[in-house]
Design goal:
The structure is a single chain. By secondary structure, this protein is of the alpha+beta class. It has a domain at 18-81: YefM-like fold. The protein is 31% helix and 12% strand. It is built from 4 helices and 3 strands. The protein has helices at residues 25-30, 32-40, 66-76, 101-109, and strands spanning 22-24, 45-49, 52-57. Strands 1-2-3 form a 3-stranded mixed beta sheet. Strand 2 (45-49) and strand 3 form a beta hairpin. The longest helix is centred in the middle third of the chain and has 11 residues, at 66-76. The radius of gyration is 27 Å and the shape is elongated.
């Protein structure tokens, strides 16, 4: 018969998270998994470089879906931008001079036929 564990005790040895919410960049890199678990639990970390704060690591919103998280990552690296104001304006085609694009493609492929 298996027993259930009511209380989980963590070892206090070398547990740097209990000291503060600030962590040095080297320490953060060394124990990345541990710090990411703490962020998943809801804690916010300030990463420092030689005592100067350089980044804040915090959990995404509680109601964030996996799609929201993926979109937030893309927005953070600049791959997408999020529309802040109303809907986009309607599409208005441009008029061009000269041959149409389809005519240019057909002409380019004429030697292959």
């Amino acid at each position: 018969m298996a027993s259930k564990v009511d209380v989980v005790l963590e070892c206090g040895h070398n547990d740097y998270m209990n000291r503060s919410t600030q962590v040095g960049a080297r320490e953060f890199k060394t124990r990345l998994g541990r710090y990411l678990r703490k962020v998943r639990e809801g804690r916010t970390l300030v990463v420092t470089d030689r005592g100067t704060p350089i980044a804040e690591i915090r959990p995404l919103g509680v109601d964030a879906t996996p799609e929201d998280a993926a979109l937030a990552r893309l927005k953070a690296i600049g791959a997408v931008t999020q529309l802040e104001e109303g809907p986009l304006t309607s599409f208005r085609p441009m008029r061009s001079r000269g041959a149409s694009v389809s005519d240019a493609i057909i002409e380019d492929r004429a030697d292959r036929l």
